[in-house]
Amino acid sequence: MSMTATVKDLRTIRYIPKPGEHQLSINLGLADAATVLDFARETGLEFEAVQIPTRQGIEIHALLLCQQSESLPFGSDLSDKLDELATKVSSAAIRHVYGRFKTA
Description:
Layout: E1 21-27, H1 33-43, E2 48-54, E3 57-68, H2 76-86, E4 94-98
Antiparallel strand pairs: 1-3, 1-4, 2-3
């Protein structure tokens, strides 16, 4: 499998989200899937396995949140739970990215 090959039948999401889009995902290569699934259940978030092409290759993530929002789409409760998750998995596994709007 080459560095640019993708996994068949697994949805691909962009490394850089669309403008205004928030993505919260957990890299399953760096975190235990059962721990991530438990976290998703606790927080009421959906768990979808997706692939993200990067310069280093394909990463498989549990996509927990993907939505358009001009503000942070989660409150302090979820933020606290993410901090707790970071004690159970590598904090490097947790990925929250936001697609910024271009300024004129």
